[in-house]
Design a protein that fits this description.
272 residues, six-stranded mixed beta sheet, six-stranded parallel beta sheet
């Protein structure tokens, strides 16, 4: 028997168990289990110390990605440069931290035909924005505008982009539309926070990557789609980062992407 889980707070509505369990079933990993465990920053160290040899890995969501960097034995260069680990692989009594969020964004965008945007406008300045900037750099984007409610707090995300060779300009969120058109708009804003930008972004002709996956579509996504623009939703990112986690935790490359996609879409439809 091997165990894995997603940790975070709140965690009850995480889609990760559906995705990982679908992968295990299709791969014939009958002895593998994957659960959702409520865990805040203060509880991560003790939880890790209490894991037995049956544990293969952990997926981490907010607010654990940064604190995890100091609780692992080894960490990937990518996770260090991005400033957060969303994955801990447990093997031979050691913990290895990694980041699959960047892979998830890159794969979601390329799958939709968004391969090398020359310019980008990123809405929001938190950890997801930092991963998005790293992904954009990996796609070949050279410059981006980062629009955040509090530009001073977005400095860390901007530094991540610059670490990957991206020229990043930080501006107040309220002035974001002044930096359109851009080839790609990335919204890392929660819920309906991006609704006011729907009209201007749709009119600009930009492609859109919106990290929200439920409820879907967002007003922003619906407006861009109606205008004929390319829209990539947060589910695609979640799916592909989970695929990479299954590879890391199982050591197998034959991960059933379409089975995971179907299971996730079915669960989202059930919840809607």
């Amino acid at each position: 028997m091997r165990r894995a889980a997603v940790l975070g707070s709140p965690i009850a509505h995480s889609l990760s168990p559906v995705l990982h369990r679908a992968a295990y079933a299709a791969m014939g990993l009958d002895g593998w289990t994957y659960d959702a465990v409520e865990c805040g920053e203060d509880g991560l160290s003790g939880l890790l110390d209490g894991l037995g040899p049956e544990w293969a890995g952990l997926s981490l969501t907010m607010p654990l990605k940064r604190v995890a960097l100091g609780l692992v034995d080894t960490v990937s260069d990518l996770a260090v440069r991005v400033g957060g680990a969303n994955t801990i692989v447990l093997r031979d009594g050691r913990r290895h931290g990694d980041n699959t969020d960047v892979h998830g964004i890159v794969t979601a965008l390329t799958e939709a035909g968004v391969k090398a945007p020359s310019s980008a406008l990123v809405l929001g300045g938190g950890a997801t924005a930092a991963s998005a900037l790293a992904a954009l750099a990996g796609l070949g984007t050279e410059q981006a505008v980062l629009a955040a409610r509090t530009p001073e707090r977005a400095a860390e995300a901007a530094q991540v982009g610059e670490r990957f060779g991206l020229a990043v300009r930080v501006v107040p969120l309220g002035s974001a539309t002044a930096h359109l058109p851009a080839e790609l708009v990335v919204s890392t804003l929660p819920g309906r926070a991006a609704d006011p930008f729907a009209g201007p972004v749709a009119a600009s002709g930009a492609a859109l990557f919106d990290v929200v996956y439920a409820p879907w579509p967002t007003a922003l996504a619906a407006a861009v789609e109606k205008a004929g623009g390319t829209v990539v939703g947060g589910f695609a990112m979640l799916l592909h980062q989970a695929v990479r986690q299954v590879v890391l935790m199982t050591g197998r490359e034959d991960v059933p992407v379409e089975a995971m996609r179907a299971a996730g879409e079915a669960e989202l439809a059930r919840r809607s």
